[in-house]
Amino acid sequence: MSMPEALSKCLVLNTVAAARTLLRQGDARFKPFGATVQQFSLLAAIRFHPGQPVMSLAQRVLLDRTSLTRNLDLLEQKGLVRRASETVGNVRVCELTKSGNRLLDQLLVAWQQAQTDFSQDLSQEEAETYLRIAKHFANG
After folding, report:
1. b (16+ CB within 10 A) / e for 108-118
2. What is the pLDDT of residue 95?
3. What is the Cβ-side half-sphere exposure of residue 123, based on CA atoms within 13 angstroms?
């Protein structure tokens, strides 16, 4: 097998390309709402895992500390998230504001449509296989 052929079959390079493409398409879907895929996942994590420390949420949505801080600060500046007042010690807990909940409701509708659109050219089996493999690598 030639090196160009081997590179074209590289799991890492193909995964990076797929991730960039999906992220770009996802961000385009959320742009009209003033949000990104990372912000959507963070808003959803805050709603569906209330009271969890911010660092636990970051692990859940696979955000590094820098990305987490940047996105939380942006969401807080936009009035979508606030720090819960009853935190203990250094533990940071966030909650959605009314505006954050309204925006997340809109983003969930856009996300559901995007899921349908992204998988329209795949069979159910292909979509399930892709997701299983992606989760395998994401969970190390």
Report:
1. eebbeebeeee
2. 94
3. 3
